[in-house]
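REQUEST ID: PR-0412
SUBMITTED BY: lab tech R.K.
PRIORITY: routine
TASK: structure prediction, single protein chain
INPUT:
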Amino acid sequence: MALTFTDLVEVDLDKLGTAVADWKKTVDRLKTSAENARKGMQAKSDSAQWAGVNATVTRDFIAKTAKEVSDLHAEANSIYQVLADGHPELVSLQKQVKDAAGKDASALGVRVDDIGDGKVVCIFPHIRGDTDERTQEQLDAKRELESRINGILSHAAEIDASVARALGKSHGGDAHNAGHSTYESLNDAQAERALELARKGDKMSDTELQEFNRLMRFNGREKDGEFATEFYQGLGGPEKTLEFYAEMSVDGTNPDASKVRLNAMKDLQQNMGFALANATDPDTRQHLPASWGSDFRRLGTQQIGWEQGQWNKPYGYQVLGGLLRYGNYDPRFLDPIAEHVTQLHKKDPYFFLNNKPTGQEDTYGFNPSGRLGSGNDPLNSVLEALGHSPEASEKFFTQPPTAYNEDGTAKGGSPGFTSYLDLFTDKDFDWTVDTNDANILADEDKTKNALTFGPEALGHALESATTGRPYDSDDASDAIKHTQARADLVRDLVDKFGEHPELIRHNENGDIDEESGPLYGLRGSLGDITAEYMGDFQRAMYKEDPGSDLFPTFGTAAGLDSGHAARFLGAVGQDPDAYSAITSAQQAYTAEVVDHVVNGDSQSTASLDGRVGDVVAPGSAIAGIMSDARADAIYEYHAASDTEFNEAAADKQKWVDRILGMGIEKVGERIPIAGAPLEWASEDIQESIMKSIEKDTTTAAELEAGKQYSNGRGAAIDSAQAALDNALMNNQHINSDTADDLRRAVRTAAGVSHSDGAQWNSESDAK
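STATUS: complete
OUTPUT:
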C-alpha cells in the first residue's frame, strides 16, 4: 500500500525520534554486554582448564552465548543506524510537504487533494462570482506545485520502503537467532537493494525498474557520494558499469519496448549519469578511485558485449556517452575523456559511426533521451557533458590541449592544434550525422537537422564555459561572476564570429546566394552568452572607456572589439531565440543604467538629460542591429518568420530577472540602486520587452519602400522611455518639466542610436 499524502502529513514523527533514542540506549547497553561477555565469561572460558563434558558442551555454550550477545549488538546497531538516518529525512520531507500544501498552496489559491496511491492533485476551488479563468502563469504554478508535492511523496515512500526492508533484513525473521544483515547507514541498505535490482539487468520488471530509478534518483545525488560510490563499486568496475547500462538502454529503446519502458529508461539514463558524476568527483567525502577515469578511456575504443555470442558490439565511448550527458562532472575526470574523444574524432570522424546499428528505430541507442543524436557519436555526448559541467568546460576551452594515445593514456605535448575553440570553429571540421533514421542521406531536411546536433551541443558547452552555470540550469539560478578566463573566451568568440559571420549564417533558400554556415546550430547559445555579457556588449557599441563604471560588467571585463561585436550581434540576432535573449537582456540592462543615472550618486557636472541620453544609446544601437538582423532572417535568408521571433520571446523572463539580479557594480562591489535592486521593475520591463518585440516587425511592402526599421525604431524609443519612466517612479525630486525634457532626450538618443545600429549591420551585410 503506497504512502499517501495524508500519511506523511499526519504521522507523528516524534514517536520515531523517541524510538531512535531508545535504540541508541539499547545499542550502548548491548555494546557493554558484548564487551563484558567477550572480556569476561568468554575470556575466562578460553583460559580455563576444562575437562570431561564441560570441555565441549559448556565451553561451546559460553562461546555461542557470547557470540549471540555480540550479534544482538550488531543487529541493534544496524536497526539504530537505519532509523537514525531515516528519521531526519522524513522530518525534513514532512516539513516540505506541509509548507507546500500550506503556505505555498494558500498563496497560489489552490486546494491540495489526496487522491491516494501516493499522489495529490491541486485544484483552484470555485468561488461564487468567479469566472474560473486562470492565466497561463497560474496554471503553470499549479502544475509545478502539484509536481513538487508528488515528488516529495515519492521520496518519502522510497525512504519508508528502504527503512522497512532494512529493518526486516536486520532482524531476519528468526526470534531465536540474532545476526543477519547489518548496515552502517540507510545508504548501505539502499545501495544493496539497487545492486540487487541491477543484477537482474534487462530482466527487471517495469515495477522493479521504477523502484531502481527511485533509489538512484533520491540517493545518487547526495553530496557525500556514499550511495553513488557504493553502487558503482558494487556493479564491479568500469567495464561492468558499461555492460549494465548498454544492456538496459538497448532493452529500453528497442522498437518492441513499451512507452512505459522507454520513459523509465530515460529516467535511468539521467539518474545513473548524475550518480556517476557524484561518484567520480574527487572532492566528495566518498568517491571512486581516479583509475576509473583511465579505465573508461582505455575501454573507450574497445567493443563492449553483455550477451553470450553477441554479434554487434558498441564501443565503450558510445555507451559511456549516454551516461555523461547528465551530471556536473569534475574536470579531472571529464576533461581527459572529452579531449580523447575529440582527438579520436579529428583523426577519423566516422570511427564510431561506422559501428552504429542499422535497420533500427531512431530511438534505439545509448541516448534514450533522444536529445541531439542517437548516441552513436560520442563527440556530441561529451560536448553535452561539458554543457552541464561549467568548471570542466571552462578548463577545456581555455587551457592548452593535451595529446592522448588511442588507448587513452596521455601522450604529452600538443595534439596538433592550439585550442579546442579553434578546432571546432574550423570551417572544414567534420560534423557527423548521428541518427539511426533510415535513408538519412536521401532526406536533405533530416540530414541538415542532424548536422546541427554537434554544433548545438558545442554551443551548450561554450555557454557553460562562459557563464559558470550548466546551460540548462534553473531559470532562477543566480548569475556567477565572470572570471578572466571566461571573459577572454567570450572575446575570442566575438572575434571569431565577428570576423567570420558566415560560419553561423543560416540560409533557407533565401534571396541571397550564400550557403548556410556549418555552425548556425549554436546561435541560440551565443545569444544566451551575449545576454549574460550585456554590459560588455553595451560598452563596445560606442567604445566606452575601459575605466568607466557607467556601463558595469559583472566581474572581469571582456574588452570586446566594437566592429567585431556589431558583426557578431548581426549574425547571432538572426536566430529567433538569440534575438529574444539579447533583446530581453538589453532592455533590462538599459533599465538598470538609466536608473543608476537618475537615482544614483554622481559628481558629474554634465546635464542630466545629456547623461540619460548617453546611457540609452548603446542599448538602442543593439536594438537597431537586432531589427536589421530580424529583417535579414525573414526576407533575405528565409530562415525564420515574424511569428517565430514573437513566440521565442515568451520564455525570456529569466534574462530580465538575471540581469536585474546582477545589479550595478563599482570597484568590483555590488551596490544597490536607490536602496534596492530593480526587482520591483521586473514585470514592467518584461511587458515593455514583449511589446517591443511584437512591434519590431517589417512587412514586405515596408522593406520595398525602405521603411524596414520604422517599427523597430519606434519600439526602441518606447522601450528607452519606459526605462526612464521606471527610474522616475523612484525619484520624487524631479519635477514634471524636467521629466519631460528627460523623456525628449531619451527618445532622441534612442532613435538616432537605433538608426546607427541598423546602418552598421546593413553595411556589414554588404561586405
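NOTES: The radius of gyration is 31 Å.
REVIEWED BY: pending
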